[in-house]
Amino acid sequence: MEYALVCPPDEGTTLRLDYRAFAYAGKFVVGGPGKSVIRTPDGSPAAPEWEPDEPLPETVNPDAFDEDVIAAVSFSADRTDPSCCRLRYVTVHAARRGEGIGPRLIGETVADLSAAGFERVKIAVNNPFAYEACHKCGFAYTGEQTGIAELELARPAAAPADAEPERYREGLEAFRETDGELSRAERRFAAERLKRGPPELDRSPRDGG
């Protein structure tokens, strides 16, 4: 696998991801946000043996998809703070989830955003699994939520945020307060992490990790 910065914000480059394999696939067709990916080094398919649950419509050409993309993230400057960049959408191929690819992609992207001059990076998450992955990448819960009940996490671009066990647990408790919207696996995951506390950092290779 290799990391690549596809484009900075406003360059107009797009990605065509198979919507059957990637959540938020349609968001990467938009040219405005910046994008970065983890992809296969030789251009081969990300998951050669993966079989989708549904066929493509006859009007969709499968050859148009970027088959070598394993994971992708889109990002753009915060509308109220140009020194801050927001990670908008993070998605990993359905057959490659659970391999730690998402945290690696986020870490590499944050390193590029720091090099580009951003001072701070934010992301909003809507489930305990994404919450945990972002903490592994040096983000921390800010105590704030978006208008659609996503939890806001942030970190300095150049270094991980300070790990505060109580603030970490506060975010997990916020998910538990919406218990009816969590799956059984998400509820179990949140309960286990509440007992354990913040995870160890999964550092980008460019951080010396």
UniProtKB/TrEMBL annotation:
Swiss-Prot/TrEMBL keywords: Transferase
Keyword Transport: no
N-acetyltransferase domain segment(s): 61-139
Superkingdom in the source lineage: Archaea
Matches recorded under SUPFAM superfamilies: Acyl-CoA N-acyltransferases (Nat)
Record-linked Pfam families: Acetyltransf_1 (PF00583)
Annotated region described as Disordered, given as residue ranges: 157-209
Parts forming coiled coils: none
Ranges of compositional bias, category Basic and acidic residues: 164-209
GO molecular-function term, one example from the UniProt record: acyltransferase activity, transferring groups other than amino-acyl groups
Name of the protein this chain belongs to: GNAT family N-acetyltransferase
